[in-house]
Amino acid sequence: MLAVCLLVVAKAPVPGLAKTRLAASIGAAAAADIAAAALLDTLDAVAATPVTARVVAFTGDLDDAARAAEIRQRLTSFAVIDQRGDDFAERLAYAHADASVAADGVPVLQIGMDTPQVTPALLASCGGRLLDGDPVLGMAGDGGWWVLGVPSPATAQCLRQVPMSQSDTGARTLAALRATGAQVRLLPELDDVDTWADVEVVRAMCAPTSRFAAVGA
């Protein structure tokens, strides 16, 4: 059992609000369903990872979301906290701080809901690297990042200065972490899901029995 808190930062997959780039090509309802499948598969992987704490920082109206009943039931296995802050960078920084409190101060390893191909083995490996004492960062194929681990929430405060959802967000996050004086350990790169082409790539990497493997099939 790893003395790590796995933190998932997620929002309710509400049609019209979820995966808007994807929705432009396949419709709002289908895009929200894909987002819901990704979230549920991600939560399954986190739930099966041997860590001491699992937290979801959540925002949005779950009553209006795709697969709402299934998501609500799955969240009962997690400590759920509300996201707070004015923009996404600020919400990430607060989520690390709040998750650390909820998990009694153990290091926090944070992922989003856009990489349903993650496995318990991969997450455990990332958590083990974090326990070496340095921040860890895994880049995404689109120039962002999919996982960030910090030994202390104070380190994550540097995220407040990083523009999110840009093609250089990963590089800027790495630079911001290094500017704190930390020696950052890089983790494996993964593709996340923003467009239909991403869906096809990621779906091929998911377990055949997963929800995401079935989307659009």
* Total number of distinct structural domains: 1
The secondary structure category is alpha/beta
Helix content: 40-55%
From the coordinates shown, what is the CATH architecture? Alpha-Beta Complex
Largest sheet properties: 7 strands, mixed
The largest sheet has its strands arranged as 3-2-1-4-6-5-7
CATH superfamily: Spore Coat Polysaccharide Biosynthesis Protein SpsA, Chain A
Text of the CATH class: Alpha Beta
| Strand and helix order | EHHEHEHEHEEHHEHH
Name the assembly state. single chain
Query: Helical segment tally?
Result: 9
Overall geometry comes to globular
How many DSSP E strands? 7
Question: Overview of this structure, please?
Answer:
This protein has 217 residues and is of the alpha/beta class. The chain has one domain: Spore Coat Polysaccharide Biosynthesis Protein SpsA, Chain A. Helices cover 41% and strands 20% of the residues. It has nine helices and seven strands, in the order E-H-H-E-H-E-H-E-H-E-E-H-H-E-H-H. The protein has helices at 20-26, 28-47, 68-75, 88-102, 120-130, 153-156, 169-179, 196-205, 211-214, and strands at 2-11, 51-59, 79-82, 108-111, 136-140, 145-150, 185-190. Strands 3-2-1-4-6-5-7 form a seven-stranded mixed beta sheet, with helices on both faces. Strand 5 (136-140) and strand 6 form a beta hairpin. Helix 1 (20-26) crosses helix 2 and helix 2 packs parallel to helix 3 (68-75). The N and C termini lie far apart (37 Å). The model has no long low-confidence stretch (mean pLDDT 96).
